[in-house]
Design goal:
By secondary structure, the protein is an all-alpha fold. About 65% of the residues lie in helices and about 0% in strands.
Length: about 425
């Protein structure tokens, strides 16, 4: 008689706990936890080089910028006795003899150690004219007699009798301060602890921030208007023509940024090729050539051409995936070419539009070389001011503060875009 044979599989169970055991006598649950833990360790070890690189290349510089922007220990360490004596000063009138004496003692040490130049540079950031009176004091203080330091210091220069200079010195007393961030938006904290705006004739940074946003916005808009038809041609033309057009689009990537900018300087100058063409076709008179250099016009033209590929490529990657049958279906249902494009084609390209606009805007906000060369006084951006503070004035703390403010602005733009559109709806390729 044929019967069904059954195989009995060995089941290992604890008589006490009734838990399933492995062949080694270890509870299955515990064994799975150990395997999972080992897999997590392996995964972490695999990504640890990338994590280390991110910490070194990205996180550490940002932390360093943050610390530098609020660190004000240099002046505090140079004048310890002065700031200790200033704790009792209300800032309304000139400091007492005690403060003048403490300042003399601190500054004398700095002069002997030849470190007074750093102090004069730092204090000049706080108030213009501080550098000259400190240098003059360094030359004259050798002749000082002991005692009556207040009168002797004020006799060196009349500015030492101006309470504003001593107030500026007191503002540098805190070891850590957020004054650089206030300065970046044309504000400061007065002696009463209130945050107020600087005088109107000294307000420059708000103008730079607004100009940066304005130029970045219009460059993004111009790039979109030019890139959309180019990307459409790339997606719809036959392969051989599409490849040729793609080479033309990618050509700026193969040329140095400095060379491209210098080329626009040659083209856009008053006696340049562009103005020559305008005169030749009769658009402008020879004696009335438009100025397209060292202003916003030059910045717009050069930056649009340089950043155009960053808009074309995301759009092309999305348009390439759109089936032509969708447009034919729309026309067969009675839609006009414009209605078909607006109702069917354009909504499908929104992920590419979002990616391109976000990419171009973020790059344009932090652009430096092109605005520096072709922008002039009216076409420079906040990045140019950051570079100036780092290279010319050597005010690294202020440059760090503005750099972090720029980074924060970019993150805010990213956050707003994510809330309104959704970062998942963009497509880079």
């Amino acid at each position: 008689m044929t019967g069904v044979q059954t195989c009995a599989l060995p089941i290992y169970m604890s008589s006490e706990t009734q838990k399933i055991l492995t062949t080694g006598g270890i509870p299955l649950e515990e064994s799975l936890k150990k395997v999972e833990k080992r897999n997590k360790i392996k995964a972490f070890l695999l990504v640890s080089p990338l994590l280390f690189f991110l910490i070194i290349a990205y996180i550490s510089p940002i932390v360093g910028l943050l610390f530098t922007s609020i660190d004000d220990r240099m002046v505090t360490n140079m004048l310890p006795k002065t700031f200790k004596a200033m704790k009792q000063w209300d800032g309304k009138d000139l400091p007492s003899e005690e403060v003048f004496e403490a300042f003399y003692q601190d500054y004398k040490i700095l002069v002997e150690e030849k470190r007074h130049g750093k102090l004069s540079t730092q204090m000049n950031y706080e108030k213009n004219g501080f550098k000259s009176i400190l240098k003059k004091l360094a030359r004259k203080m050798k002749k000082f007699e002991e005692g009556n330091y207040k009168e002797q210091i004020m006799a060196v220069h009349k500015r030492w009798a101006d309470v504003e200079y001593w107030r500026a010195l007191k503002r540098r007393a805190p070891t850590y301060t957020y004054s650089k961030y206030l300065k970046g938006v044309d504000m400061y904290e007065n002696e009463e602890g209130k945050i107020v705006e600087v005088p109107e004739e000294r307000r420059i940074y708000k103008i730079l921030w607004l100009r940066t946003l304005e130029i970045a916005f219009f460059v993004t808009l111009f790039c979109f208007l030019m890139a959309y038809p180019i990307a459409h041609l790339l997606a719809t033309l036959p392969m051989k023509y599409s490849n040729l057009l793609m080479i033309c689009v990618l050509l700026p990537f193969w040329t140095s940024l400095l060379v491209r900018t210098a080329s626009w300087m040659i083209l856009l100058q008053q006696q340049g090729i562009v103005n020559d063409v305008f005169v030749w076709i009769g658009l402008v008179a020879d004696n009335n050539r438009p100025e397209m250099m060292y202003n916003k016009t030059g910045t717009y033209v050069a930056m649009t051409q340089i950043l155009l590929p960053f808009m074309v490529l995301p759009l092309y990657s999305v348009m390439k995936t759109i089936s032509p049958s969708l447009m034919r279906a729309g026309k067969s249902l009675g839609g006009t070419p414009f209605i078909t494009f607006w109702k069917i084609y354009f909504p499908l390209t929104i992920p590419g539009i979002g990616a391109g606009c976000l990419l171009v805007f973020i790059i344009a906000v932090g652009y430096y070389i092109t605005p520096e060369l072709v922008g002039g006084a009216s076409g420079t951006l906040i990045s140019n001011q950051i570079a100036y503070q780092m290279k010319s004035t050597l005010d690294w703390s202020f440059a760090s503060a503005m750099g972090l403010m720029l980074l924060t602005g970019v993150l805010v733009v990213y956050w707003v875009y994510n809330k309104l559109v959704g970062i998942d709806n963009i497509k880079f390729g």
